Amino acid sequence: MNIPNGNKTLSNWSSSIENSKVRSFNFDTLSGHPLDVCYFPDDFDQNFTDDIGAPGQYPYTRGIHSNLYRGKLWTMRQFAGFGIPDETNQRFKLLLDKGQTGLSVAYDMPTLMGYDPDHNLSLGEVGKCGVNVFHIGDMERLFDGINLEDVSVSQTINGPAIILFAFYVAVAERQGVNIKNLRGTLQNDILKEFIAQKEWIFPPNPSMRLITDMLSYCTERMPLYNTISVSGYHIREAGSTAAQELAFTLADGFTYVEHGLNAGLDIDSFAPRISFFFNSHSDFFEEIAKYRAARRIWAKRLKNKYGAKSQKSMMLRFHTQTAGCSLTAQQPEINIARTSFQAMAAVLGGTQSLHTNSMDETLALPSEKAAEIALRTQQLIAYETGVANVVDPLGGSWFVEQLTNDLEQKAEEYFNEIDDIGGVIPAIEQGYQQREIAKSASEYQSKVDNKDRVVVGVNKFANENEELDIPILEIDIRAEKNQMEILSLVKNNRDDISVKNSLERITKACSTNDNLVIPIIEAAKNYCTLGEIVEAIKVEFGEWSESSAF
Prior knowledge:
alpha/beta, 10 strands, 49% helix
């Protein structure tokens, strides 16, 4: 291994390698050629050390771990959820049996919007686009037979995130799990909802209060849990460019950091538990450069602006999902190949966990067969391609390094524009991010329509009179009826006085500085429903209505 003498960064990396765990695997090429952990130029200048350096060393351009996947493969975390909790529980167990290493919960639209199954806006939507969970009993059924201490769980939930989090914590305690040992991620990035996905309940500032309360609670009691997953995925799905996804996502992350600091938290007490969630689109090298730029920007900003001292605070950790917006309903089998290339980019970019989309997701929720193929895609990359054998194998490529620099520069330009407006929340309120994304989405679609951008199977190499020949998952219409029956049973068998008192305590806490997580967990244990808790919070916080961005 070519380690120049006197280079502190490389010396530190070399020392860390000696003390790193290595998984049991043959890291030679298929032909038997031995490979080093990482590769470097023969000559180093200061620019290389400052901007690229070594894996596991500041500014982490080459990754946050010294030996990356030689030590531990990324978490294979397939997004899953449909129907009633029992059905999703079966899918979870199936995926775990087939080698998945983490769980990711997809909730249905009523749950995402904070409605119980009997709400008029829930009708026809229960269990259709994810699993329906409206009280603690549902969360127990969702994880029946799954020890929450043994598996990390990601939850994609935003407006009512604090409530689903409370259900999860309460169920873990019922399982006898010490919550300090819980591992997972809560994707409660409400800022990206205002920017892109549009699934909100409360206005921006009260929403930030909820997130800050969760941040404080987990910092004190759940040191292994990622309290915020800052999501660029949905920004990209809304039509942003890679640079916009990078900039708007990191700007949101900096905003959460500032709210944590304003709440009196020490930067190094909570920043290590902020994680990110990025899209992996089809431009292979641009996506890899995006992840490398993200790590470098985060490290520099946390150190130089926010005063972080801990290296863990400066390490940007992220989950990746392949681009749903790139999937096509035409020739859906081609989506297997699309997803494979996108997943490969995520791995070469150093992701910590990964979801690979299923080929049928433009048509329905994934069938069992499609979900297995998507998981097998990850396993093939991990065990057959050799890309996990070397850390940052593209590092030092003139093209990749220049693209990384270009994306970093463009992100900084967006940061400056947001700062000129007054910050992320004022920019959201003025529709800045929304307009920028809309313009990019329109420009891209025009290129596709004019065939300036080729989409295989859609505007080129299309099959006329195509007939689909893949299984499609159908959601049992009885899911809604089942959940409404359970809701009736819950309300008829609980202690109404405890429910009333719990809801009143939540409303009161909203008007004080009391941490809201504690009374909401109490309400969950007293069988208050999702919709009831949301309404108790609305008494003080109200609801958000978006003004036109154009």
